[in-house]
Write a structure and sequence with these properties.
Helix 2 links the parallel strand 2 and strand 3. This protein is 42% helix and 15% strand. It contains nine helices and nine strands. It is an alpha/beta fold. The mean pLDDT is 90. The protein has a single domain, classed as TIM Barrel (Alpha-Beta Barrel). A seven-stranded parallel sheet has the order 1-2-3-4-7-8-9. A two-stranded antiparallel ribbon has the order 5-6. The longest helix has 20 residues.
């Protein structure tokens, strides 16, 4: 079974051990980290998305120009721009970096955070909207003719993308641990993305997603976010992990706290 190794690319070279202000934008640092991921053989990097973050679609084009083979997992929130426009933008990026883009559909960690962009739809409604949005993206990428759409969340006449993705589709990543999220993931996800968990916890997640996916004749792959500490021996690795924990604890006052993310079901599960 093929394994995909993905990294994370931010708009500056900041970490829990060497924090920088979230407002700091480092153009040269973005290029440097993109090229390092490219050289080290990573398959993709995640370009995150939130109400206060720089535009990651622009960053994706920037990464495409700076790398040879590195892919991008582009976090994207349904409903903030029309799905017809999003489909054309994503197809364009895929043409610029052929076969190297995936779209991580996210619905936001909290109601409060999305209100900063004027979205007052509840979490359950956002998942329902995402389901319809993904269907429109795929129709735009595959339909050789303009088409009309009139459903619960979106309505348009003559939606069309003249330029299609280089493949038949762009992979859809999807995450979330609430019942509404798991339902949409089973129906729509090519890859289910989740946070780190115990072996027992991951087994439970995989079984739930696969059960929902089976209802739609789908067989998604799985992506787990995890921090790996490497050393010459297990003892040395644990020592290094302890040192990192102590360093991070000392830096807490300098770190920007993501209070919105802490409310998400997946983050609460990881903490437990």
């Amino acid at each position: 079974m093929p394994v995909e190794i993905n990294g994370l690319l931010n708009h500056n070279i900041s970490s829990e051990t060497h924090p920088l202000p979230f407002t700091h934008f480092d153009r040269d640092g973005i290029i440097r980290m993109a090229k390092l991921h490219d050289d080290w053989g990573y398959d993709k990097v995640l370009l995150a998305n939130a109400a206060v973050m720089p535009d990651n679609i622009s960053l994706a084009g920037f990464v495409a120009a700076a790398t040879e083979r590195l892919g991008v997992m582009l976090a994207h929130r349904p409903g903030f721009i029309p799905p017809t426009m999003a489909a054309r933008m994503l197809a364009t990026i895929d043409q610029l970096m052929p076969g190297r883009i995936g779209v991580h559909i996210i619905t936001a960690a909290s109601d409060e955070e999305v209100k900063a962009d004027g979205d007052y739809v509840s979490k359950v409604e956002r998942y329902d909207r995402a389901r319809e949005y993904i269907g429109i993206l795929r129709e735009m990428w595959s339909n050789p003719q303009p088409f009309n759409h009139d459903e619960k969340w979106f309505r348009f006449d003559g939606g069309f993308a003249a330029v299609k993705p280089t493949r038949s589709d762009i992979p859809i990543y999807f995450g979330g641990m609430s019942p509404a999220a798991l339902d949409v993931a089973g129906e729509c996800a090519d890859v289910f993305a989740t946070l780190s968990d115990t072996v027992e916890g991951m087994t439970e997640v995989v079984e739930k997603v696969r059960a929902n996916a089976k209802l739609h004749n789908r067989d998604p792959r799985f992506l787990m976010s995890i921090r790996i500490v490497i050393a010459d021996t297990e003892e040395a690795a644990w020592q290094r992990a302890d040192e990192l924990r102590d360093t991070i604890a000392g830096n807490l006052g300098d770190l920007d706290v993501n209070t919105a993310a802490a409310k998400a079901s997946g983050f609460r599960r990881t903490e437990e």
